[in-house]
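> example.struct
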């Protein structure tokens, strides 16, 4: 058997480590023979995977690897390998501080947001929420009144997806034959998930454990499909994998900088498609279906409440950096995110899942980083969809 290339060894490393942690391999559409070989091999301990990652990094740093690996690919692969090595060390039982884990895995160093910023967001929400009484009760009542009936969810999603697909096609282009299949699921720690299947196809699952709220539905469709995850995957499969032979893009791995940029661009997607105030377009799809959606209230609440997304990062910090009890963190989310207890518990379920514990930084840090880099320029957003970038590239170029 001929010696494996550095890229093939990277793919084997990701697939092998994924045997230890469910969900680490978010997507793989590369060689089925390579995957079968990994699955059939004896299970290597996480420490061995960490050592393999270190060897690959040293090889890259020493100028090794095939000549086809230009500086961009080497930089990208190195960042990915540092993330995998960190995950392997954690799985091997090594203690790594939460902030160091996030920085090594995702390329950003998290820090908590001052609660004065959250108080300011509360004041802005207080001005627009209908009703009387405490803000949290009014905000919860308003949000839960915007629930989309499950029997109408499929029609609403497909209406939005068709529109967003046409807009994405006009702005950026989509590979011929790309396709998204939508499904409703339960018993998951997330709200929505893109399962990229390769062959330019995605299956997007929407979790109905808790009612899906109409103010978040447009964002969800844009995030998971057009121009978010599905668009990025298909553009990179068509451009990087098929056209340029960059086989490292056939695997998508949690715990790597790849994820931070993917979540940041996906969160930015609806803004890129519809501008800073997307609510009238979303309302035009939902109101004819009898789904509650008041564009003006939603717009004001979104603008005032965007800062509250940082609460999730603060909650992770309290859990993992400060070691606060889960019950206290649930209470923190109830207070500052203005969440009802079931939604606060669901948020903590995500933060305590072994696969996703540090992943929240991809949302909290990814959106502002990508927004700053794009700066309202669709051509820069297209770079996120098509190029191999690392977080440092965006920070330098912004």
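> example.seq
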């Amino acid at each position: 058997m001929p010696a494996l290339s550095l890229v093939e060894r990277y793919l084997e490393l990701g697939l092998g480590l994924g045997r230890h942690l469910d969900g680490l391999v978010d997507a793989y559409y590369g060689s089925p023979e390579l995957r079968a070989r990994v699955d059939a091999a004896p299970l290597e301990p996480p420490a061995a995977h960490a050592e393999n990652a270190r060897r690959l990094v040293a090889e890259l740093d020493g100028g090794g690897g095939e000549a086809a690996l230009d500086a961009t690919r080497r930089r990208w692969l190195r960042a990915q390998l540092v993330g995998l090595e960190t995950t392997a060390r954690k799985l091997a039982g090594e203690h790594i501080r939460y902030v160091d884990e996030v920085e090594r895995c995702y390329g950003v160093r998290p820090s908590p947001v001052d609660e004065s910023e959250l108080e300011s967001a509360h004041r802005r929400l207080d001005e627009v929420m209908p009703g009387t009484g405490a803000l949290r009760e009014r905000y919860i009542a308003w949000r839960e009144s915007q629930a989309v009936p499950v029997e109408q969810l499929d029609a609403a999603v497909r209406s939005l997806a068709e529109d967003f697909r046409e807009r994405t096609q006009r702005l950026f282009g989509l590979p011929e034959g790309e396709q998204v299949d939508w499904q409703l699921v339960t018993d998951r720690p997330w709200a929505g998930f893109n399962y990229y299947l390769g062959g330019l196809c995605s299956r997007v699952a929407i979790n109905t454990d808790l009612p899906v709220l109409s103010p978040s539905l447009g964002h969800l469709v844009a995030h998971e499909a057009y121009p978010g995850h599905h668009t990025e995957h298909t553009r990179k499969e068509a451009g990087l994998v098929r056209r340029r032979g960059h086989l490292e893009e056939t695997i998508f791995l949690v715990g790597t900088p790849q994820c931070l940029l993917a979540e940041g661009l996906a969160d930015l997607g609806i803004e890129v498609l519809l501008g800073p105030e997307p609510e009238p377009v979303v309302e035009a799809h939902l109101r004819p279906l009898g789904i509650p959606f008041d564009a003006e209230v939603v717009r004001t609440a979104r603008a005032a409440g965007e800062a509250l997304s940082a609460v999730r990062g603060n909650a992770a910090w309290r859990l993992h950096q400060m070691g606060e009890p889960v019950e206290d963190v649930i209470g923190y989310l109830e207070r500052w995110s203005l969440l009802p207890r079931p939604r606060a518990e669901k948020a903590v379920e995500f933060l305590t899942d072994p696969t996703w514990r540090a992943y929240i930084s991809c949302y909290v840090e990814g959106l502002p980083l990508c927004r700053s880099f794009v700066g309202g320029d669709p051509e820069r957003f297209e770079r996120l969809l098509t190029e191999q970038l690392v977080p440092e590239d965006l920070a330098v170029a912004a």
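> remarks
The first strand starts at residue 25 and ends at 28.
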